[in-house]
Design goal:
The protein is an alpha/beta fold. The protein is 39% helix and 23% strand. The protein contains 11 helices and 12 strands.
């Protein structure tokens, strides 16, 4: 059992919900493997409380944070207010306008976005070549933003962004055009437009259920398409079963969690993360 006392550094993941997160499992394993006196805990934080909680946790000396749904875009908005206690924002966070990792600095939080970095390392291990691919992105939240901004550097043929709220999909498509990437388009999840053909689906949705509207978009994919689901563990079971029925090659987000978590670990500690230890902790359950 990890010994915790007054000298133990504290790290946390904030979200609502947050009970499903396996980040504590992999980060605590990483700290233990490198002999770092630290503990990582989950904290449920409602959306409207984020600003006050971040201020309080910085004042309490919490050394680092991860943010999950629904806080990534809200954290970036807070960081634009220099009076809110932020020291610096990474280029990845600025490009995606989302923050999922924070590091304590004496003059405020330093913000970073690790989802895109983790995603590209994940798919690199999967052997996917993005050049010329037609990509469907389901979701337009903080994780989708960082992933899209990473993908456009890989020269895909096109990226189509679909979201329940069309204005968010439109906003992300405009960000891609500003990058500039001239083959980004957007639609509402409920749109009745005729589905095009896609080679890769990135399911950046927090829900574990797959709606009929979402399934209609899936049907536009080529048989044998790859579906990268950012959900993992029990939250990925429904999508996994449906993907197999549709003849897709399915990948759940466990490896993404490991790689983005490793990037967070480096950002906090300045040390290389023990990837294999983190992966084994995730699998061990």
């Amino acid at each position: 059992m990890t010994r915790v006392d007054g000298t133990t550094q504290v790290y946390a993941v904030l979200g609502d919900p947050v009970d499903h997160s396996l980040s504590p499992r992999i980060q605590n394993a990483a700290f233990a493997a490198l002999g770092i006196d630290a503990v990582y805990v989950p904290l449920r934080v409602p959306a409207q409380a984020l600003g006050g909680v971040l201020h309080a946790l910085h004042g309490a000396g919490v050394r680092g944070l991860n943010l999950t749904t629904p806080h990534k875009e809200s954290a970036f908005a807070l960081a634009q207010d220099s009076d809110r206690g932020w020291s610096e924002i990474s280029e990845e966070a600025r490009r995606s306008r989302a923050i999922n990792t924070l590091r304590w600095e004496s003059n405020g939080w330093a913000g970073h976005a690790t989802d895109g970095i983790g995603f590209m390392k994940w798919v690199e291990e999967s052997g996917v070549a993005w050049d010329g691919k037609r990509i469907l992105i389901l979701g337009a939240g903080g994780a989708a933003r960082t992933i899209v901004m990473g993908l456009i550097a890989e020269s895909p043929q096109s990226i189509h962004i679909v979201n329940r709220r069309k204005e968010h999909a439109d906003q992300l498509a405009r960000m891609a055009w500003d990058a500039p990437f001239r083959s980004a388009s957007s639609a509402a999840m409920s749109s009745t437009e005729e589905p095009k053909r896609w080679d890769v689906v990135v399911r950046a949705l927090s829900t574990e259920n797959v709606s009929e509207d979402e399934l209609r978009w899936w049907r536009g994919c080529e048989r044998g398409a790859i579906l990268f689901d950012l959900n993992y563990g029990p939250r990925s079971e429904i999508a996994r079963g449906l993907a197999e029925e549709h003849g897709f090659r399915y990948r759940d987000g466990g490896e993404l969690l490991v790689h983005q978590g490793a990037e967070s670990f480096r950002f906090w500690t300045g040390r290389e993360a023990p990837i294999e230890v983190m992966r084994e902790a995730l699998i061990a359950g």
